[in-house]
Amino acid sequence: MEQSFESLIRSSLKVITSAPDKVGFSSALIHLELSYPEGVDGARILNSFVEYAIEVERKKIEADLNIIIENRLAELGDSIDAARTEYDVSKQARIAILLENDAVQRSQLQDELVALRKQLRVGRMDRIAQLKEAIDIAQSLGIQKPTMPSGLSENFRAGEGPTMYTEINNQQIPLYFMGVEILEAERSALLKRNSDDFTEARIAQIEREMWMLQNNREVEVLERRENEEVFLSEVQPIRAEIVRLGKAGSLEFSSIQLVSVDRKALEPLGPIKPKKNLLVLLGVVFGTAAGAVIVLIRNSMAARRVESLGGG
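The structure corresponding to this sequence follows.
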């Protein structure tokens, strides 16, 4: 049936289009003519053919549009996946930067703490050495109790009468004037000391800062995020477009008018073939010519016969 229909369409269907205008554009008007034998419903065939062609084109447009929508949805999905990947990478990078900064700060504070404790220990040992030297001097001078330089001179003037001395001096008094007892007590305390941390307020501050660096609250908040989709940047327009394309996929294409049929095919008032008047005329012409030819042939044969009889 399809082959017969195809043969009929190729041999009998004529497509007439308008001639292009001066600019070179053709009109959108198409005229179809179908020649068919008697007994065939040609008008229904041509109208059905037009409807079939329109339906085929509508399905092609629907299929093309669905492919475009699917490709666009896939592209938008890839954009969201890329945004999600970018967010994951940026979040991990942010966490790594925060942890790295904390580690650097802890190392710096630890180095400062070690250097500060070493400085305090060296200072304590220097103080012990100074005390030892001052004790030796005080013992050699016989200074057991704290005294002043003027008091030391009074000891050397013990045989003289009572005298009151006033000493005005802007120079620092040597350490050995503190006396052996006080110097020995301080030196003994320094030797028994196990830690010098309490002597420096910065050590307590360093320990406080190091304790604060043990837990980074921003890192904890980043790691505890549950709905991370809300933190994706510049994806709201993409999601809105996905929703619109989802609704576009449910369009009713049967209501789309691709062409406007000005006039459907109708049964002709009369057949275009055969043309009786033309056939009669052709019959008369060909009959007359055939009769003339036959007469000429018979006359020619009769003349030859007479000539052959006279000669004998």
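DSSP finds eight helices and two strands in the chain.
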